[in-house]
Amino acid sequence: MTNEKLIRILKKVELNKNEEVCDGIYHCFRIIKNKVFDGDGKYHYSKREYEFLVITEDKIKKAIILRIGDIDLHWLVLPKYRQKHVLSNALRKGIISKLWPSIKSVTCCFDLYDEYDEKLSITNHLAEISKLFVK
Length: 135
Prior knowledge:
Strand order of the largest sheet: 1-2-3-4-5
Low-confidence stretches: none
Strand content: 35-45%
Number of domains: 1
Number of strands: 7
Largest sheet: 5 strands, antiparallel
Structural class: alpha+beta
Distance between the termini: 19 Å
Number of helices: 4
């Protein structure tokens, strides 16, 4: 799932319709329609339920963590809240191991505009806080 799609999902989440599992952390389930490309260049749409954690401060949505099955996580902090320890403060609460004990690692993914060393450093830091290893 792209960062842009995660941002759209985060903005649409209604906090009062989800369980607050820890101070400022909401556990959400949502059915999302995705475009799936076939090998012949055609595509179709597929609906699937996804599981998220929404990180808030004073009911302001600031970050989201997408659970990718039992194998990985995709986390994103809205740009105006980056470098403010939003995600690291939430992860220090141990919510990943409590809610998703089967997840033991994360993958550091990059896109064309990312600074490789900076992104890897941030991922390593967040993984360490969460007691996960980086693949």
